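BUG: 3D viewer hangs when loading the predicted structure for this chain

Environment: internal workstation, default settings.
Expected: structure renders.
Actual: progress bar stalls at 90%.

Input used:
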Amino acid sequence: MFNTHPDTMFSDYSDSSSITDAYLQLKLRRKEFEYKVIYDDYSFQATHENIYSLCRTFINDMSYDKRFGKFHLYTNLNLKEQIPWNTQYGDPTVYDLQNLKTRRITAGVNATYEINDNINFLLGGTYYNDYMRYYRPFLVLNTGNTFEYYHAAAGFGEFSLKTRFFNLFAGGRLDIYNAHNLFEPNFSPRISITKEFKSFHYKLIYGESFKIPTLQNINLAFNNSEPIKPEKIKDYQLELGTKYKTSTVNAGLFIPALMTL
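Structure tokens produced before the viewer hung:
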């Protein structure tokens, strides 16, 4: 197999390439407590260029899941360290600015209370800390620091009600970030009304989602004339369907709207 480049040069892939992959997973569980470890190491040697690349992920995850009658409590603590992409033996002026080490620490809690089979509430919160530096620790980011991090926290809630004619789910999420004071707090609501009958069903959904740039996005855009902005998506969904014996007919409408704040 050959690959021809724009400059008419070509690469010969007939001898394949060298790929090494190691994966390890360990799970310990006792009653309501669970602990998991995941290690993934993927590396390859390219045939068309004298480089060696690796991707490495190490995850520690602890959770506690307990029911107290109608009350359900779930807590979680997660530590994820990654070398998402690391290229060695290549041009350092190119690859040293792509090779990163990252870490995310996440802690969260969810609490659900079921009043009866038709009504329940969910409340929860999460916190995480993102950290990033270049793979070579002495290199300086565009911000002037050798590493960057930010804190983020979110609170969310949901209410659900099931009736004879409709099922209502209504909730929202409030996100607060401390990322160089670039982003204001954001609230994202979500509501849906659905119901399935014997031969007919319908679905109405309105939702919003919110995503801030990653630390590498912020780093690359630090010297831009225009500040980097988060993304916010609003979507509207409508679906109607009918069923007769083994045949079904569905009609749906989905309208997304992407915005930058």
